[in-house]
């Protein structure tokens, strides 16, 4: 199986998982969706769990690359936060909370990869962003960046908790947007608020 075929299987499986969750999608469903035989899929992926793991690793690598690009291309911390918001909107708007639930319950190895990405990469990058923002005068200097970074990353996870925000009552992206807005304005100095509002006005116009 070529790399192109492997990527096609991973992407096709991801499309179905986002629609219906992981548990309810079978290898037969994936094969039918892609118009290929199940034997072809099993040639490279021994079972659905291995396919899920490949999908998670691919998505995490893509997200890491996008986040690093945002950090490198932003002029200051506030623009970085705004760009992160745009990136988050795109990611969160297409995530089905059932996928998070199924990943935790039925694919614990994949969930561990996500948790490691969250603690080792996301928290570290957010700590660096906050420290940089303090140096630039946009972030309040009295904040404990380690506490705030962990809090923010876990806020994202909380936004997917259906016992707190049932999807029948709340838009997943609206929940994430409100949490992010609250965080951004809570950590900024007056100087940071002014620049944050300027960027938001530019984007709204």
Task: Please provide a written account of the structure.
The protein has 10 helices and no strands. With 205 residues, the protein is mostly helical. It folds into 2 domains: 1-46, Orthogonal Bundle (Arc Repressor Mutant, subunit A), CATH 1.10.10.60; 56-204, Tetracycline Repressor, domain 2 (Orthogonal Bundle).
Attribute tags:
Arc Repressor Mutant, subunit A, 205 residues, mainly alpha, Tetracycline Repressor, domain 2
Provide a brief overview of the structure.
The protein is mainly alpha-helical. It has helices at residues 3-20, 27-34, 38-42, 48-73, 77-93, 97-106, 108-136, 145-159, 172-187, 190-204. The protein contains ten helices and no strands.
Structural class: mainly alpha
The appropriate CATH architecture of the largest domain is: Orthogonal Bundle
Kindly give the count of domains: 2
CATH topology of the largest domain: Tetracycline Repressor, domain 2
Biggest β-sheet description: none
CATH class of the largest domain: Mainly Alpha
CATH superfamily of the largest domain: Tetracycline Repressor, domain 2
Order of helices and strands: HHHHHHHHHH
Rg for CA atoms: 19 Å
Q: Helical region count?
A: 10
Q: Strand-residue fraction?
A: under 5%
Regions with little confidence, pLDDT below 50 for 5+ residues: none
* Beginning-to-end CA distance, first to last residue: 48 Å
How many DSSP-defined strands? 0
Task: Label the overall shape.
Answer: elongated
* Helicity range: over 70%
Overall pLDDT confidence: 90
């Amino acid at each position: 199986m070529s790399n192109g075929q492997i990527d096609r299987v991973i992407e096709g499986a991801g499309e179905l998982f986002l629609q219906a969750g992981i548990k309810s999608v079978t290898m037969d469903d994936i094969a039918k969706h892609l118009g290929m035989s199940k034997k072809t899929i099993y040639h490279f992926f021994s079972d659905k769990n291995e396919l899920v793991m490949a999908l998670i690793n691919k998505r995490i690598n893509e997200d890491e690359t996008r986040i690093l690009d945002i950090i490198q291309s932003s002029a200051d911390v506030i623009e970085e936060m705004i760009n992160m918001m745009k990136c988050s909107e795109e990611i969160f708007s297409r995530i089905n909370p059932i996928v998070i639930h199924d990943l935790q319950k039925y694919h614990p190895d994949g969930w561990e990869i996500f948790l490691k990405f969250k603690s080792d990469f996301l928290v570290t990058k957010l700590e660096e962003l906050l420290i940089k923002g303090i140096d630039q005068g946009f972030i309040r200097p009295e904040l404990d960046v380690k506490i705030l970074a962990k809090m923010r990353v876990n806020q994202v996870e909380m936004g997917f908790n259906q016992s707190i925000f049932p999807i029948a009552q709340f838009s997943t992206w609206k929940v994430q947007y409100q949490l992010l807005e609250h965080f951004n304005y809570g950590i900024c100095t007056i100087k940071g608020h002014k620049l944050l509002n300027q960027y938001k006005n530019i984007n709204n116009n």
